[in-house]
Amino acid sequence: MEKILDIIEAIAHEKNISKENAIEAFKEALVNTAKKLTSQSSTFEVIIDNDTKTYSINKVITVVADDDERLEEEPDSYISLSEAKEFDDSIEIGDQLKEEFILEEHGRTASANLFRELEYHVQRRIEQDLFEKYREKVGTVMLGTVNRIDSEDNTHVEIGELKGILTRRNRIKGESFKRGDTIRALLRYVSVDPQYGLFLELTRTSPKFLEALMANEVPEIADGVVEIVGAARIPGERAKIALKTDQMNVDPIGAAVGVKGVRINAVSEELNGENIDCIEYSPIPEIYITRALSPAITQSIKVDQEEKKAIINITGDQKAKAIGKSGINIRLASMLTGYTIELNEVEGITERQADSSEPETTKTTDTSALESLFK
Question: pTM of the predicted model, to two decimals?
Answer without folding.
Answer: 0.71
